[in-house]
Amino acid sequence: MKRIVLPIISLFILGCGNDPIPKPKAYLRLEYPEAEYKKVESSLPFTFDKNALSASVSKAKNSGNVKGINVKYPSLKATIYLSYKNVNKRNLDSLLRDAQNLTQKHTMKADEITYKPFENPKEKVYGMLYEVGGDAASQSQFYVTDSTNHFLSGSLYFYAKPNYDSIYPASEYLKKDIKRLMESIEWTEH
């Protein structure tokens, strides 16, 4: 009996000591390389600046009058999907409405959706950037148009379950690339 009781008492005495101290909150520190941009000639009637961190620009499946390209970021497990449509006198309103409705579909999961208008009168590029906060499938969406011939919409998606805290650093980094893409658009056919 002494052989059993003595080790148990020793464990209680040695086990009692300082109260445990919780570890301070820590945040994931991710460092991305400084963006280096170069102009890309696409198979579509526009050029834009692309970050060297993106591996490639690939042609997406085309359906009807919609043509697309994808800007892939394998190291960030993300892709910016770009869809191009020709504008005519009758379809600009519906193209704008569709782009806005696509963003609004994320309201169920989003904590907030902010928008920033964009204008580049010199290159005839006008549009809107939507930033989606929370666990939504897409963190950024945008469209640009010249209002007469060209309409380009884009969405940022990650190849991961949308967990806002985890993808936030990459999302912020890619948001800068999207802004640069919008700023650098030049229509090549009129």
From TrEMBL:
The keyword Lipoprotein applies. It comes from the Bacteria. Pfam families: GldD_lipo (PF25593). This is Gliding motility lipoprotein GldD. Keywords: Lipoprotein. It comes from Winogradskyella poriferorum. The keyword Lipoprotein applies.
